[in-house]
Design goal:
- With 233 residues, the chain is α+β, with helices and mostly antiparallel strands.
- It has a single domain, classed as 3-Layer(aba) Sandwich (Rossmann fold), CATH 3.40.50.
- The protein is 55% helix and 22% strand.
- It has seven helices and seven strands.
- The strands form three sheets. Strands 1-2-3 form a three-stranded antiparallel β-sheet. It has a two-stranded parallel ribbon with strand order 4-5. A two-stranded antiparallel sheet has the order 6-7.
- The longest helix is centred in the first third of the chain and has 72 residues, at 3-74.
- The chain is elongated and about 120 Å long.
Length: 233
Amino acid sequence: MTIQEIAAEFAGIQANYRLLDQQFKQKKQQAEILKKQIDIQQKARWIITEVAQNTQQRFCVKFENLVSMAIQSVFDRPLQFCLEIERKRNKMECSMMIKEVVNGQERIYDDIEGDIGGGVIDVVSFACRIVLWSLQNPRSRNVLIFDEPGKNLGTLLPLFGQMVVEISRKLGFQIIIITHDISLMEIADRSYQVTHDGNKSSVKLVKTRTAEELKKAPVKISRFTREDIRDAV
């Protein structure tokens, strides 16, 4: 190999070295940019996680307080509604329970219906539906329909009915109830009787209140207020 050939080969090696060195510096710079982006994303993920957990915790507290207020408006017991949210099988799951302090000891009712009766379930399901409706943005409608609500409450049904009336008035929406219970019919602003003779159905207005009567109608329970609902949004 002549000197000229060696010089040419060396020049080629130098050119390749400079090219590789330039590519290395570019890749190193890109790696540093990616590392910074990863750091930013990790910090952003941490912030989002913290915000989500904080929001979830605040929501749970408000939700629990609102449902507990509804329960205590009907039952003369210090029953507290509780939500427990945890990750299982790579997804979030929520369980509900009722707690009560009796003689300084906390009791937890996991099987709400079996432990303290279906009446509490009736109130909890009603309150949950109201709270979730209030959180809708935009809200789907200002009318909610319930079929035989509070059917397991027995003698406590009038208290449940009064709570329903109060919530309807304070939040400004209409509640339509389908029921066979006279006590719910009596607290309603307007009642219709539906009968069926085997061939056709008939609807008869049996009670109505004038606008003046509605203004004067008393609201007895003050646990469940417009401000409470607004705070949960």
